[in-house]
């Protein structure tokens, strides 16, 4: 059951059997139906979660009330509002399951206990924050410097399985285009592949 999360963590640090047990004993596995809001704007994020199974998105509401997706997370990804979780301040984001999901959760108390008992986990969380920052920087650069078509191509390179797993309007909200545009570009790419 914990094989994937142990493999994810041991990319950054080595764990002996006792440390693995301490870690896994602190995790809570939650089975969450699709379309469940895990975090709403104004709430304080109380989890850092590892997606064992499923698909989750992070989004915010723009000034016109439209959803703007900023991140998709699938198996082997971590999900949270890092700023809200760390500072225990209200979030500006929503986190929602798009598919039925199984997520291993840490709350602020269990994370702190983990860091006290196994200090080298600081490296794991530092590396995850760096990866998240890298992903968001790339997204920002692509949004500013690339055409909508190129942004879609970059999107399917980063998230190759997402187009088969989520509705087109989620992809459109991520790219900042209409769902009709996404449909058109997908058709154009399918024609080129033939």
UniProtKB/TrEMBL annotation:
Gene3D superfamilies: Jelly Rolls (2.60.120.10). Coiled coil: none annotated. Residues 11-115 form the Cyclic nucleotide-binding domain. It holds the Pfam family cNMP_binding. CDD domains: CAP_ED. This is Cyclic nucleotide-binding domain. It comes from Chryseobacterium balustinum.
């Amino acid at each position: 059951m914990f094989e994937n999360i142990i493999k994810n963590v041991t990319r950054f640090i080595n764990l002996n059997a006792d440390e693995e047990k301490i870690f896994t004993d602190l995790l809570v596995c939650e089975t969450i139906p699709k379309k469940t809001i895990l975090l709403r704007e104004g709430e304080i994020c109380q989890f850092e979660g590892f997606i064992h199974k499923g698909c989750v998105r992070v989004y915010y509401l723009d000034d016109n009330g439209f959803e703007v997706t900023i991140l998709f997370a699938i198996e082997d990804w971590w999900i949270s509002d890092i700023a809200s979780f760390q500072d225990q301040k209200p979030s500006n984001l929503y986190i929602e399951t798009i598919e039925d999901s199984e997520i291993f959760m840490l709350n602020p108390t269990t994370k702190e206990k983990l860091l006290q008992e196994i200090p080298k986990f600081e490296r794991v969380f530092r590396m995850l924050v760096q990866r998240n920052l890298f992903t968001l920087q790339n997204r920002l650069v692509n949004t500013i410097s690339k055409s909508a078509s190129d942004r879609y191509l970059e999107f399917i390179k980063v998230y190759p399985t997402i187009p088969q797993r989520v509705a087109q309007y989620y992809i459109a909200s991520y790219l900042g285009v209409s769902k009709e545009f996404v449909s058109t570009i997908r058709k154009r790419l399918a024609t080129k592949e033939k």
